[in-house]
């Protein structure tokens, strides 16, 4: 698909501006090395090449074929290609699943034909792809008509673009070119009937011609291949920058109107991207900024930022941005600060380092300051803010010489030059090895992303989380049954006993210790409090007896048809932080674990963390710590610190349970989990398991 | 200061690259119309102009004078200028408050000399200013050495830049120029010893040569003039875009190291900017995007966004951005959608409107779609996303003709073209009247800002809030006294009585109704619960008697030296939402009112809204509605809706109290305010007033 030695164009046009003409024209003018075979029943020659009336007449089996014929003919063309053994078809033809149900059926036929012949199929309804170094341009974009050179592709880096949208994919490619970023390979996937975005990312992860992957998606359609591809990219140390649109309610609605996508939850996709260290870009510019800053291929796992500036104000601005990006800006060592203060008496040598207008008189000071920051400060990322000095006829050359001397000794750092300079001067600085950003705040976002890539690359592959053996019951268990299942999987519940009569309840309460909570047990009642099925603070034996009678009366009155299987007696825990754990099944990515603090945090603020199941204890703790409400578990408001490790173990155990339980498990809701002070544990106080 | 007819340069240098030489060189080459008088005791001529040995020798009184002499000589120069009646001095000289205490003293002397002569003084330690249309360049930036034309200033719009930082101010000016935005007037304020940022914004609000104001600050030093200036700009319908750095803890720390600024709280400044409809930009690029989009001077008070696109994906991305910016994207009317569906069968005609690749065959469809959006959809802002089509040799001219025909009939809309095109093509589109953004998400941010400007311009000036008569007691009142003071100002308290003995307490409780709350009254105890001074749920007369004894015992044990003036008996309210109201005194902007939801919202999430006092009831309600936790007052979690109007009245009354109370009022903390269900009111349950 990406690197064929021969290409057929089914529906080739002699007009180089038509859909069936453009790929041919581009491949001829960009010198594709192998044979290109136009197929056109009405012409002997197309754009100067010998043409063939149909697929069967081709002089050989093409490694790839473009299908650019009208809807009615596409199926036959794909069938003919498959019969001849062509391994890859790129289908431009539209009018399939994006249109109506008949189109969906036609698309399903296309896929079944391709699969029947073991042929990969890109599209249908796609714009195509290109691999510029090979002169391979099976794409009908008008981009190459605009007078921009396409080959050799100018610019730095080797960024592959994988985009569901054709129009947006070429927009991105054009914008990258304008920024001086090379994009040798661009693939648009259209309807993704067979080849998906995951396939393309996977190919790029393995392709030596690609160093950075920029992806665009309106909704991931296929989970396993996508996950495999992200892991392959991580192992290959290739950063993935991805724009996944539809994150807002309005956007998600627009996405549904636009594609027939059955995209899973946007938040789940976001969690998956985070898991693999993918940078989720919020807009095109951030996408390009991060990809651009990835081109030096320096990914510091422990990234720190040092700033040397001639503007105190810019230093403050950069500090604001660094804090937002959680990028550390540690101060310079005290002795180095002392030395700098000798060089420039009123400078600020901490970090940001302000070397003041003093440097206009003596540019060697810039070199001394920059060297101190690299060698004494040890920063992995550096921003030198020199604004218009970067273009000053009298000063720029001196500045460049000073910085280059330091850079030459430390090429392993990420160097950003924040200057205002004309494009040709910017290209010179880039050739020296600097990333050039006019806006220093944008530089911070891009640098922080490189550190996150580094951290993701440095992580060992996800350790296999040991899964318990789970045997789900025939029907949804009651609360006691649910808790027993989870307890067997390693998620402890509050000490409790399912009791069958009033004397058994009294006995259990005595054993567990007062006060206790009493709850109705019934497989038919999901929300006990709604039927008066929960009693709190039951203080003594008499109260247990009275409570038993009351619960039975409430059940009879409010849920007369429910089967009551007994009464649950449990210790009433106080002083705990209430947390909710849960499992939901995502249509694309399978079971997903959720954690959030109880009360307003989930319901009003939607403050939850998500991760695919299973998660190990380390990941589980990271999820918990990422909550905005985490301070409540960490000793805020004068509370003792809660037992976060125990909560992390519970979350990990729940996720392993869900991963082991299989597709019949629809959801789990463990709410609340009572998290006691450090060392005292975390216990499920309620659990609901739903089966599908 | 901004438009003199004659200029003196004290410390003029013959070298056009020195600090005392650059302004002269710039004014000569840019043709300042009036006389320019160099002062230099060592030369007869400076840069070809007749020079004078000192200020007294000048042939006239200059309208403005540049002071570019070394520190020791600056004071004498300012004094001499003042004596001759020069009304404005621009002091480049550094070594003042930014350095040390001696510098602070020297700076105070400078100000006192200037004020003594009624002379305005810019700086010291400033880079200067320029007013390009006059050829007036009292500035020592190197920017004009870089081969960029400075006069006539190219570009669109008339954006004035007011910047505390010289280096950053010129960075902004250079970046604006690179973007094709004209900045005829730039003023840098340096140490702001006399002229402040507020002065400069005020001048620009009145200057007909300025349409948009871009300001940069590390901390506002002077409140009243700044407020006056923002209100003047609002009245003149001139948008203010401001970058106030130091919003993060790290940034604020860096700002303190950088300047001797006594900036008030960053959050308070943020609230002030919001009050006047100032757009607070997060980075340079957003600053320029918003200023650029302001240049057509179209500020729709009710701004809606319509999107016409050839990429469904871009439409989704724009929808995401619009939701984040709270910019409405209402759908097209149904009948218009029907009509569009006839034109292009598989288009998506709602909004974003996707007119599909069909338009490549027939560009008149773009015109039809765009016209429908303007005339039927009635959108005030439009984004047309056409990516590389905007540069296509075969299509761009047709696209332009189609859009221009619609635009010509509706020049009152904000039209954005999101295209990828070379700079010269972009300039053509701009000349047609479009704003051109490569990144459509950035366009949304800039367009949404224009709507907020419009809404701020449309607001009537802040109505005077009637202030109560407040007589503060000689020393801080106890809780009962505090509540009485606030109740007199219109903030009702929970029904309660201050009682002097146990029988009076029983009598009061009977009158108020059980259960009651009992609290110690003492002017010496601020936090009652810490000494065991609060009893909740006191259920009957016996409990009142027992409680009385217990409170007295707790006071004796835990606060033996406190004077106990009695016991407060109050109704215990249940079913209320707890809210905190407060007043703090900002060193720059005076008393500030705060509202936040109780518990985790304030302590963990810092979810509060701030506004200068006084606020009227409408503003108060807007503050309450802006809280992230507002859903809790609005019926979330199955609660009844709370009495938000009553809470707004309470907040407004508290703010009026603070505004009337004068400088002795240090702070007020009304926590909790119990907000009952709709129609039932909001009552202060505790109040602490601190006096300074």
TrEMBL record, chains A, B:
Q: Which GO terms describe its biological process?
A: tricarboxylic acid cycle
UniProt GO molecular function: acetate-CoA ligase (ADP-forming) activity; ATP binding; metal ion binding
SUPFAM superfamilies (alphabetical): Glutathione synthetase ATP-binding domain-like (SSF56059), NAD(P)-binding Rossmann-fold domains (SSF51735), Succinyl-CoA synthetase domains (SSF52210)
Key word Transferase present in the record? no
Stored Gene3D superfamilies? ATP-grasp fold, A domain (3.30.1490.20), ATP-grasp fold, B domain (3.30.470.20), NAD(P)-binding Rossmann-like Domain (3.40.50.720), Succinyl-CoA synthetase domains (3.40.50.261)
Q: Where is the ATP-grasp domain?
A: 483-519
Keywords noted in UniProt: ATP-binding, Nucleotide-binding, Tricarboxylic acid cycle
Q: Is Nucleotide-binding among this UniProt entry's keywords?
A: yes
Q: Note the superkingdom of the native organism.
A: Bacteria
Note one Pfam family from the annotation.
Ligase_CoA_2
Q: What protein family is recorded?
A: In the N-terminal section; belongs to the acetate CoA ligase alpha subunit family.
* Name this protein carries in UniProt: CoA-binding protein
Q: Which organism is it from?
A: Muricoccus nepalensis
């Amino acid at each position: 698909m990406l690197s064929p030695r021969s290409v057929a164009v089914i529906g080739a046009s002699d007009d180089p501006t038509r859909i069936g003409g453009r790929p041919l024209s581009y491949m001829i003018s960009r010198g594709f090395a192998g044979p290109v075979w136009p197929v056109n029943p009405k012409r002997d020659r197309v754009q100067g090449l010998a043409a063939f009336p149909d697929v069967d007449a081709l002089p050989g089996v093409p490694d790839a074929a473009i299908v650019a014929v009208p809807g009615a003919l596409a199926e036959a063309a794909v069938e003919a290609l498959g019969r001849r053994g062509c391994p890859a078809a790129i289908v431009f033809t539209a009018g399939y699943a994006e249109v109506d149900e008949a189109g969906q059926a036609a698309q399903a036929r296309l896929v079944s034909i391709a699969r029947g012949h073991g042929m990969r199929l890109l599209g249908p309804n796609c714009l195509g792809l290109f691999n510029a170094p090979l002169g391979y341009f099976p794409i009908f974009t008008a981009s190459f008509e605009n007078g921009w050179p396409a080959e050799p592709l100018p610019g730095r880096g080797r960024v592959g673009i994988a985009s569901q949208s054709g129009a947006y994919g070429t927009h991105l490619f054009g914008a990258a070119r304008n920024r001086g970023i090379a994009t040798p390979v661009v693939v648009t996937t259209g309807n993704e009937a067979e080849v998906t975005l995951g396939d393309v990312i996977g190919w790029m992860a393995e392709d030596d011609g690609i160093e950075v992957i920029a992806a665009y998606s309106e909704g991931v359609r296929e989970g396993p291949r996508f996950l495999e591809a992200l892991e392959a990219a991580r192992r290959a140390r290739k950063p993935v920058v991805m724009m996944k649109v539809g994150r807002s309610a309005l956007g998600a609605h627009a996405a549904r109107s636009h594609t027939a996508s059955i995209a899973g939850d946007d938040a789940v996709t976001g969690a998956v991207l985070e898991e693999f260290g993918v940078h989720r870009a919020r807009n095109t510019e951030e996408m390009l900024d991060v990809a651009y800053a990835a081109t030096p291929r320096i990914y510091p796992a422990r990234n720190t930022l040092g700033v040397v500036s001639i503007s105190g104000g810019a230093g403050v601005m950069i500090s604001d941005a660094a804090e937002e990006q959680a990028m550390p800006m540690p101060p310079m060592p005290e002795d180095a600060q002392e030395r700098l203060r000798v060089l420039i008496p009123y400078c600020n040598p901490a970090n940001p380092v302000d070397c003041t207008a003093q440097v206009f008189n003596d540019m060697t000071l810039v070199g001394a300051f920059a060297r101190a920051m690299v060698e004494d400060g040890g920063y992995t990322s550096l921003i030198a803010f020199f604004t218009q000095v970067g273009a000053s006829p009298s000063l720029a050359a001196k500045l460049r010489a000073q910085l280059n001397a330091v850079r030459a000794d430390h090429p392993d750092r990420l160097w950003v030059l924040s200057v205002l300079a004309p494009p040709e001067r910017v290209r010179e600085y880039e050739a020296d090895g600097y990333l050039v950003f006019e806006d220093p705040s944008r530089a911070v976002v891009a640098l922080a992303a490189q550190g996150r890539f580094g951290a993701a690359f440095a992580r060992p592959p996800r350790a296999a989380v040991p899964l318990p053996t789970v045997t789900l019951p025939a029907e949804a268990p009651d609360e006691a049954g649910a808790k027993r299942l989870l307890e067997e999987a390693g998620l402890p519940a509050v000490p409790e006993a399912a009791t069958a009569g009033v004397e058994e309840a009294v006995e259990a309460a005595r054993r567990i210790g007062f006060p206790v909570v009493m709850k109705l047990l019934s497989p038919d009642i999901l929300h006990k409090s709604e039927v008066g099925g929960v009693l709190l603070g039951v203080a003594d034996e008499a109260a247990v007896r009275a409570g038993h009678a009351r619960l039975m009366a409430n059940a009879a009155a409010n849920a007369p048809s429910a089967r009551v299987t007994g009464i649950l007696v449990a210790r009433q825990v106080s002083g705990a932080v209430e947390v909710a754990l849960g499992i939901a099944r995502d249509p694309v990515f399978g079971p997903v674990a959720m954690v959030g603090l109880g009360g307003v945090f989930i319901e009003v603020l939607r403050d939850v963390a998500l991760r695919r199941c299973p998660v190990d204890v380390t990941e589980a703790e990271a999820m918990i710590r990422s909550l905005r409400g985490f301070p409540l578990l960490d000793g805020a408001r004068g509370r003792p610190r809660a037992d976060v490790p125990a909560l992390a173990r519970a979350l990990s155990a729940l996720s392993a349970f869900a991963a082991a339980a299989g597709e019949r498990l629809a959801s789990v809701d463990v709410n609340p989990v009572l998290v006691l002070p450090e060392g005292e544990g975390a216990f499920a106080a309620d659990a609901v398991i739903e089966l599908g």
